[in-house]
Amino acid sequence: MTQPQHYELLIRDGTVIDGTRAPRFTADVGVRAGQVAAIGDLSGHSADEIIDARGRIVAPGFIDAHTHDDEALLSQADMTFKLSQGVTTVIVGNCGISAAPLRPALDLPMPLTLLGLPPDRRFPSFAAYLKALRAAPSSVNVGALVGHSTLRVMTMAALDRAANGDEIRAMQAWVQEAMEAGALGLSAGTFYPPASHASTEEIIEVGRPLSAHKGLYVTHMRDESDKVLEALEETFRIGRELAIPVVISHHKAMGKPNFGKSAITLPFIRETMQHQCVALDCYPYDAGSTMIRSDRGMLEGRVLIASSTPHPECAGRELDAIAAEWQVSKEQAAQRLQPGSAIYFLMDENDVRRILAFDETMIGSDGIPVGDSPHPRLWGTFPRVLGHYSRDVGLFPLETAVWKMTGLTARNFGLQGRSTLKVGHHADVVVFDAATVRDTATYAAPAQAAAGIDCVIVNGVMAWRHGRHSGARSGQVLTRTPASAA
Ligand code: ZN
Ligand code: CU
Q1: In the chain, at which end, N or C, are there fewer CB atoms within 10 A of the end residue's CB?
Q2: Nearest partner of 111 among 131, 97, 101, 125, judged by Cα
Q3: Interval between CA 32 and ligand 2 midpoint (Å)
């Protein structure tokens, strides 16, 4: 029996799911100086604030493995859409698009527009971006990737070709700068126009500085439909040539002819994991969301407009209805609505479930925090996995669900000292009710906080309680290389 101690925060009698996939156990959790100070029977100990967690799950705060919150962290620093789900860390800079480095004068092409970057908020270097995040902390922690499309926009005169030697050297220098500043790695989005003309060789060369830093290569692959297997091969090759871990973003099999293909992609991924470091994430919905595209393949299913710069009044409406009203084709209507974002129903629920249930799949929202009608994944991803898929559908036990949002993700992104509940770790903690946790965000009403999330603690500070933001902004910038070594 240890001597009674005093804590800032004492979470009493909760059921701990520690983020390692170990079976749950009953314990008290004491928090002091931003850290988990004790886990066990702490009866007789005292605290400034006591949380009664009887009948509740106490888990590490969730990591959103895939976000586009680069700019939101600064302009919507309370990050309610994430915090209210139990998310305490977001990974930004995905799909090849990052907020830095960019020059003020640059005209940004889609999909860089999805970040919602005002012209006066551009960061001339990755270091300047991280400095701004540190100077004005948000309510969640952040780990950041530098985007290959951003670097192309920054260094190339024309984007409709592969980069030449000088341009590759310029991009390499930016990757080096980002890694030294504390980036977790490089993301690419060869699916998108600004990077679709980049060759595999270009990405390998641009990514050279990653090898020495053990940075990650994170990819929105060139193809997630007919040629998804070729795209996986390209991804693995990049990882092998640079000898670095790769992360496949929002894995899916898109379009009717490809329904069921996850039965082939997942064994291929598993096989490759025997030889090299591969990770993947997934969001728990059968619809995706990205920039408004006018190519037929993207428009063959149901399409909902999420935001449109020239036609903001069309947000939340079906593309079919807009096209009918304007008496034009779907493609023409889509062109008129650009730039903007849309929701595409192009996946099979069976693939979504198979990918989510795959052992190594992390949870990432891919939420886009702009406009009034975002995809509901922005607010609902984590409670949807905990409530709908784990509890109601029974896809996997709650211990596994939590692990996919915490321990697994921290391991893959090299985030140390948090994301599992352990003495000495940073106190990112969520307390929730396993019986009632659920997503309430829908396509019709997407901006809805989850049900069943009792409280969320970020670096030992209470940030969300009883459905309310405390106003705390205790998020930190998480770097792959420890600050002392940078
Ligand atoms: Zn993407
Ligand atoms: Cu994305």
Answers
A1: N
A2: 97
A3: 36
